Amino acid sequence: MKKLMLVMSFLLMTHVSLAEVKVETIIERANLASFYVGEDGRSDARMIIVDNKDNKQMRQFVILRKDLEEGGNQNFLVVFSRPSDVKDTVFLVHKKVETDDDRWLYLPALDLEKRISASDNRTSFVGSDFYYEDVSGRNPNLDVHELLKQDDEYFYLKSTPKQAGSVEFAYYTMKIDKHSFLPMLIEYFDVADAAIRRVEVIEVSEVQGHPTVMKSKVSNLKTGGYTLMEFRRPVYDLGMDEAVFTIRSLRNPPKNWLSGQ
Amino acid sequence: MKSVFLVLMLLHVLVVSAQDNSDDDDWGDDDWGDDEWAVDASPWSHAGFVELAHGERFNTDALFKDQSTLSELRWHQEIDYSHENFDFNWSHDLWLDDVTDKDGLQFDLRELNLKFSLFEQTDVVIGRQISTWGTGDLLFINDMFPKDWQSFFSGRDDNYLKAPADALRVTSYFKPFNVDLVITPTAEPDRFINGERFSLFSPLAQSNMGGFEAINPRNPNQPEYAVRLFKNLNGKQLALYGYHGIEKSPTGVDQTMQPYFPQKNVWGTSYQSTLGKGLFNAELGYHDALDDKTGTNPLVANSQWRVLLGYERELIKKLNWGVQYYVEHTEHYERLLANSWFPLTEPEQNRQVITNRLTYMAKQDKLTWSMFVFYSPSDEDSYWRPSVNYRHNDQWQFTAGAQIFTGKENYTFFGQFEDSSSVYSRIRFQF
C-alpha cells in the first residue's frame, strides 16, 4: 500500500512538473509559430475595418520582417499602398522585446522622416481593431500562463497579466492548435468575466512547410466593430539583408522585396 | 470657361473614383480575385482628392475689403510610374482661388521627378521635389527647403507647409555615415507672407501693410547647396548640416530700396533619441548673414545662433504631447541697435519660443483633436492652431480649425498677424 502511494505520488509529481514545463513550451512554440517563422518573411496584407454601423474602411500594405534572434528582437518594414491618404507611407519598427521599440514613420507629402515615440502597444494599428501587439507579438513574459485543458486537437490556456491594470483586459484565453501551435482563438475578458475582444484565425495555409495564417479576424465585442485581415503571397527565408530595415528604406523602400517576385 | 473645364474634370474624376470604390465595397471571402492584383501589377498608380475649403477672419483687418482668408476648390492628383530601375513621380494641384486678386484658376506643380539608385548605396532624385530634414516640430533651424507660410497660416492641410523646388538630391549610404546633398540650381524662396492674403508689419512704414502684394522682391538667381551627414547608432540619430544660399524670406532691402533675399550660410547639428517613454531632440544652427557679417547694415538681418530642445511622448493612450524650447540669439546686437533706423521695433536679442502640441485620437483614429501653440515669452505673442479632423471613411474627410494670433505689439513675429486670426473648414473627397 505504501509502495502504491509512493508510486502514485511520484506519478502525480511528474505529471505536475511535466505540465509546468509544457505550458512554457506551448507558449514559446506558439510565439515562434505566430511571429518568428523562418529567418525573415514578406507578405501582402489587406485589412477591412467595419464599424458597428457597417461603414467599411480598407488598408493595403506589404509587410517585411527579419528576426535578429529567434524569439527576440525583430525588424519590420510596412509600406502602405491604399487608401490614397496613406499611399507610400512607410512604417519602420525595430522591435525590442525588453525595452521600447524604435519607430519611424515616413510621410511622403512632406518628405518627412518622423521618429515616433513608442506608444501603448495595445492601441489601434492604423485605425483597425488590430493592436500593435497583435501584429508584432506580445511579450510572453508579461503574463502568467496556465494550461486549462487539452483535447486531441487543441491546448486551452488562460493567461493573466503579471501587472493587473497595465492592460485593458483581466485575462485572456487561447485555443492553440496542437500541430501548428498557432493560436486559433484568443478571447480577452474583463474583470466581470465578460468577453470584450476576440482574435480568431479563419484560414491557415502551408507555406514552405510552415502553417501560415492567411485570414484572421478581430472583433471588438464592446462596440460591435471588427477587422478582417488577409495575407497574400507570403514567402519566408528570402535572405533579406539587415540594410532593408534602415532609414534608407523610408524614402526608398526595397522594390524587389515589396513586389514579392 | 476655365472654371467650367475644371468642374467637368472634377466630375470626371469623381465618377471614375466612385467606380473604383464600388469594387472595394463587396469584399467577400474570395474577393482578392485576379482583378485586385491586376491593379497592383500595373506599374502606374494614382491618388488624389478634391477639396472645398473656406476660412474667414474673426476680426476685421481694415486693409482688406473681403475678410475671407481661404476660399477654394482644389484638385490634387498624383501619378506614379514604378519601374524596376526607376520611379517617375508627378503630382499637381489645380484650384479655383477666390481670395487673391490673381486669376482665379491656380496651378502648382508639386512633383515632377525621376528617382533611381546608383552603385548600390546611392539614391538620386532629379526634378521638382519636396525635401525635408531636421528634428524640429514646425520649427526649422537647418531645414532651409522652401516653405509655404501662406498655406500654413490660411488653414490648408499641414502637408502644404512644404513647397516644392527644382533640385537634384543625392543620398549615399555608407558604413561610417550617410551623406545627403540637395542642389537647387536657382534658389527657391519660401512662399512668404507678402500682404496679398495676410497683412504684415513693415519696419520701413512702421505699420502693417496688406490688401495687395506689398512685398515684391528681386528674385534670387543664385543656386542653393544643402548637405547633411547623418547616422543612426542604435536608435540615436546624429546629423551635421551645411547650407549655402539665401534667406528664404525677403528680409533684406538693397540700395535701390527693393526687398531681396540676402545671402546666407547655415551650419548646424542635431541629435535625437528615445528618453524614458518618449523622444528627445536637440538641434543647433548658426545662421551666418553673409551680406551683413559685422551686423552694421540696418537693412539686412544679423547673424543668429538658433537652438532647439524638444521632448514628446504619449501621455495616456492615444494622447500625445510634445514640447519644444527654441531660442534665436542675434549676434552683434549692440551694433544692430546702434545702426537701426527703428531700434524700438527690432527683434529681441534672445527671441524665445515655447511650443506645445497635444494630439488626441478617438473613435478608432477616425477623429483627431489637435492643438499646437507657439508662445514667445520674450515677444509676448502667441500663435494657436486648434483643429479637429474627422475621417468618415476612406473617401470623406472633414476638418475644422482656427489660426489665432495674439501679441502685445504689432511688430513682433506673431503679433503682426493678430488681424489675420481666422477660422476655417475643409471638406475632402479622396480617391
Overall pLDDT of chain B: 90
**Poorly predicted segments of chain B:** 1-8, 11-30
Q: Unreliable runs of chain A, pLDDT <50, ≥5 residues?
A: 13-18
In oligomeric terms, what are we looking at?
heterodimer
Could you give the order of the helices and strands of chain A? HEEEEEEHEEEEEEEHH
State the total count of DSSP E strands of chain A: 13
Report Rg of chain A: 20 Å
Distance between the termini of chain B: 26 Å
Described by strand count, sense and barrel closure, the largest sheet of chain B is: 18 strands, antiparallel, barrel
Shape of chain A: globular
Helix content of chain B: 10-25%
DSSP summary: helix tally of chain A: 4
Strands of chain B, total number: 22
Main sheet of chain A: which strands, in order across? 6-5-4-3-2-1-13-12-11-10-9-8-7
The N- and C-terminal alpha carbons of chain A lie at a distance of 70 Å
Walkthrough of the structure:
The complex is a heterodimer of chains A (261) and B (431). Chain A is α+β, with helices and mostly antiparallel strands. Chain A is 18% helix and 44% strand. Chain A has four helices and 13 strands. Chain A has helices spanning 2-35, 132-136, 248-251, 255-259, and strands at residues 40-50, 56-67, 74-82, 90-95, 102-107, 112-116, 143-150, 154-161, 171-177, 183-189, 195-207, 210-220, 226-236. Chain A has a 13-stranded antiparallel sheet with strand order 6-5-4-3-2-1-13-12-11-10-9-8-7. In chain A, strand 1 (40-50) and strand 2 (56-67) form a beta hairpin. Chain A is globular and about 50 Å long. Helix content of chain B is 10%, strand content 50%. Chain B is globular and about 65 Å long. By secondary structure, chain B is mainly β. The interface between A and B is large, with 49 and 55 residues.
